[in-house]
C-alpha cells in the first residue's frame, strides 16, 4: 500500500511516462557496466529538472524509500545500481542534460548532471575553449557520475581530477532541499567547503544536479609520441625528463605493458602496431601547447632525442598528424575492451606515490606469480599521476571462471602491497558496493568514524545510495 501511494505521488510529480515500473523498461538500469551484477528496483524515476529531482527526493524521505542516483551507469564498482531487495528507486538523471551557460571570459561552463561528458567537451570547443576531462567512457558517462566518483582520466597530470575542475555545485539534499552553489568563483573563503563533500561521495550524501566547471584556452597544438622502454623504472626516468623539459605542456603520460598491446593486437587486428619489434613497456606522451605546433614539435623531439641518447627508451614514434595521434591513443583506449574480450579478469584501480610505482609492479608481480603461477598482469594507467589499472587475468588455457573465484585472494595480495607502499585501493573509480568492506582494512578507525558522522548528519535516514562507500 505504501509503495502504491508513493509511486502514484511520483507520477503526479513528474508524469507517469517517467516513472518506469515494468520489468522490461527497468532492465537497462539494473545491471552494472561489466555485466557482473543485476539488482532490482521498485521503479526507475526520470525527473526532467532540479525541481523535479527535489520533489522526488522529498517523497522518498516522506515514504522512506531508498534512492540510487544514476547517470550513464558506466561505473566499475557497483556504485550506480541497486541491490537485489527491490526496495529502492533508481533516480536516473539522464533528462537533466542541458548546458546552462558558457562563460569564456570567466573560463567556466555550467552543465546539468545528466550531460554526456563528450557533449560538454564539444560545447566548450564551440567557444574555442577546452574542457580537459577525458576518459574512455566519455561518449556515454555523465558529468554527474564523473563528479560523484571524482573521475580522473588521461589529463590529470596537467589539469587535475574532476574535483579540481569544479568550482560550484547545485545539489538536492537528502531532505529534498536545493543547495544553490553554482558560483563560478576561484576564491570563496566563507566557511566549510560544502562542494567538496559531495564530489567523490558517490551519491551517498545528496544528488548533484548541476555544476560550474573550469574551461581552458584551446591549445594551439596537441602532439603525441609513443616510446618503448625496458621497464617501469625507465618510464619514470622518462617522466622526470619530460616534466623538467616541458613543464605544464606535458598533459598526458600513460604506461602500457607489452601484454596490454598484445591483447589489443589479438582482438583489434585492424589497429596498426607502430614498432618493428616488441618491447617490455610503452609510454604514451602528449603535449598540449598554447604557443604553436612548431614549438610543441621541437619540445617533443628534444625530449625523445635525449631519452634515446641516455638509453632511457629504445625506440619512439612521433605522430605527424591528428590521425596518427588518434591511432596511438586508440591503442591505449582499446586495452580495457581487449581484456574484456579475452575473458573475465580481476581489476584494480590503485594509486601510489609515483616514486614507488616501479617497486610496486616488481614486488606485486612476483607475489602473484608465486601464488598464482602463469597469471597475466595487464598493467596500464596514468603514470604521471600515480594511477595504475593493475588488472590480473587467468593463465592461458585455464578457466577464467575458476580464476575469478579466487578474486578475494588476489585482491588481498594486491591491496596489501598497495597499502605497504602508501597507496590507495581506489584511485578514480570509487568504492561503491564492491570495495565498501575492503576499505575497512586500510582506512583508520578515525577516518571511518568521521565519514560515518558526516553521513549521519546529512542523511540520517540512510536513504541516499545505501550500501555504498560506508
Automatic annotation (TrEMBL):
<dbReference type="InterPro" id="IPR016169">
    <property type="entry name" value="FAD-bd_PCMH_sub2"/>
</dbReference>
<dbReference type="GO" id="GO:0022904">
    <property type="term" value="P:respiratory electron transport chain"/>
</dbReference>
<dbReference type="InterPro" id="IPR016166">
    <property type="entry name" value="FAD-bd_PCMH"/>
</dbReference>
<dbReference type="InterPro" id="IPR006094">
    <property type="entry name" value="Oxid_FAD_bind_N"/>
</dbReference>
<keyword id="KW-0274">FAD</keyword>
<dbReference type="GO" id="GO:0071949">
    <property type="term" value="F:FAD binding"/>
</dbReference>
<dbReference type="GO" id="GO:0004458">
    <property type="term" value="F:D-lactate dehydrogenase (cytochrome) activity"/>
</dbReference>
<dbReference type="InterPro" id="IPR016171">
    <property type="entry name" value="Vanillyl_alc_oxidase_C-sub2"/>
</dbReference>
<keyword id="KW-0560">Oxidoreductase</keyword>
<dbReference type="InterPro" id="IPR036318">
    <property type="entry name" value="FAD-bd_PCMH-like_sf"/>
</dbReference>
<dbReference type="Pfam" id="PF01565">
    <property type="entry name" value="FAD_binding_4"/>
</dbReference>
<dbReference type="InterPro" id="IPR016164">
    <property type="entry name" value="FAD-linked_Oxase-like_C"/>
</dbReference>
<dbReference type="Pfam" id="PF02913">
    <property type="entry name" value="FAD-oxidase_C"/>
</dbReference>
<feature type="domain" description="FAD-binding PCMH-type">
    <location>
        <begin position="37"/>
        <end position="218"/>
    </location>
</feature>
<dbReference type="InterPro" id="IPR004113">
    <property type="entry name" value="FAD-bd_oxidored_4_C"/>
</dbReference>
<protein>
    <submittedName>
        <fullName>Putative oxidoreductase</fullName>
        <ecNumber>1.1.2.4</ecNumber>
    </submittedName>
</protein>
<comment type="similarity">
    <text>Belongs to the FAD-binding oxidoreductase/transferase type 4 family.</text>
</comment>
<keyword id="KW-0285">Flavoprotein</keyword>
<dbReference type="InterPro" id="IPR016167">
    <property type="entry name" value="FAD-bd_PCMH_sub1"/>
</dbReference>
<dbReference type="InterPro" id="IPR051264">
    <property type="entry name" value="FAD-oxidored/transferase_4"/>
</dbReference>
Amino acid at each position: 500500500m505504501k509503495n502504491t501511494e508513493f509511486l502514484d505521488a511520483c507520477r503526479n510529480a513528474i508524469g507517469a511516462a517517467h516513472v518506469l515500473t515494468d520489468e522490461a523498461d527497468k532492465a537497462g538500469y539494473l545491471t552494472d557496466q561489466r555485466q557482473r551484477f543485476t539488482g532490482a528496483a521498485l521503479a526507475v524515476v526520470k525527473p526532467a529538472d532540479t525541481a523535479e529531482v527535489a520533489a522526488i527526493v522529498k517523497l522518498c524521505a516522506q515514504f522512506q524509500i531508498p534512492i540510487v542516483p544514476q547517470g550513464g551507469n558506466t561505473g566499475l564498482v557497483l556504485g550506480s545500481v541497486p541491490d537485489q531487495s527491490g526496495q529502492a528507486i533508481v533516480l536516473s538523471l539522464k533528462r537533466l542534460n542541458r548546458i546552462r551557460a558558457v562563460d569564456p571570459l570567466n573560463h567556466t561552463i555550467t552543465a546539468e548532471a545528466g550531460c554526456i561528458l563528450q557533449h560538454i567537451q564539444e560545447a566548450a570547443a564551440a567557444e574555442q575553449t577546452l574542457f580537459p576531462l577525458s576518459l574512455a567512457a566519455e561518449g556515454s558517462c555523465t558529468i554527474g557520475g564523473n563528479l560523484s566518483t571524482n573521475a580522473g582520466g588521461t589529463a590529470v597530470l596537467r589539469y587535475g581530477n574532476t574535483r579540481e575542475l569544479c568550482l560550484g555545485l547545485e545539489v538536492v539534499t537528502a531532505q529534498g532541499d536545493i543547495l544553490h552553489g553554482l558560483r563560478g568563483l576561484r576564491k570563496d573563503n566563507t566557511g566549510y567547503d560544502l562542494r567538496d563533500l559531495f564530489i567523490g561521495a558517490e551519491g551517498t550524501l545528496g544528488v548533484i544536479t548541476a555544476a560550474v566547471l573550469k574551461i581552458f584556452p584551446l591549445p594551439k597544438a596537441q602532439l603525441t609520441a609513443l616510446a618503448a622502454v625496458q621497464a617501469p623504472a625507465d618510464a619514470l626516468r622518462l617522466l622526470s625528463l619530460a616534466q623538467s623539459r616541458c613543464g605544464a605542456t606535458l598533459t598526458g603520460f600513460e604506461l602500457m605493458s607489452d601484454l596490454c598491446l598484445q591483447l589489443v593486437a589479438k582482438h583489434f587486428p585492424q589497429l596498426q602496431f607502430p614498432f618493428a619489434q616488441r618491447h617490455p613497456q610503452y609510454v604514451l606522451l602528449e603535449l598540449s601547447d598554447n604557443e604553436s605546433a612548431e614549438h610543441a614539435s621541437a619540445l617533443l623531439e628534444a625530449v625523445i632525442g635525449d631519452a634515446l641518447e641516455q638509453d632511457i627508451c629504445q625506440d619512439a614514434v612521433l605522430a605527424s598528424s591528428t590521425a596518427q595521434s588518434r591511432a596511438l591513443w586508440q591503442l591505449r583506449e582499446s586495452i580495457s575492451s581487449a581484456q574484456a574480450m579475452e575473458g573475465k579478469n580481476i581489476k584494480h584501480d590503485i594509486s601510489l606515490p609515483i616514486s614507488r610505482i616501479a617497486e610496486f609492479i616488481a614486488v606485486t608481480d612476483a607475489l602473484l606469480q608465486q601464488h598464482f603461477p602463469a597469471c597475466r598482469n595487464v598493467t596500464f594507467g596514468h603514470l604521471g599521476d600515480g594511477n595504475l589499472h593493475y588488472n590480473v587475468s587467468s593463465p592461458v588455457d585455464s578457466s577464467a571462471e575458476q580464476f575469478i573465484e579466487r578474486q578475494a585472494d588476489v585482491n588481498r595480495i594486491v591491496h596489501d602491497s598497495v597499502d605497504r607502499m602508501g597507496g590507495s585501493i581506489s584511485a578514480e573509480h570509487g568504492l561503491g558496493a564492491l570495495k565498501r568492506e575492503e576499505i575497512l582494512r586500510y582506512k583508520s578507525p578515525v577516518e571511518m568514524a568521521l565519514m560515518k558522522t558526516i553521513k549521519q548528519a546529512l542523511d540520517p535516514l540512510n536513504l541516499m545510495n545505501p550500501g555504498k562507500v560506508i
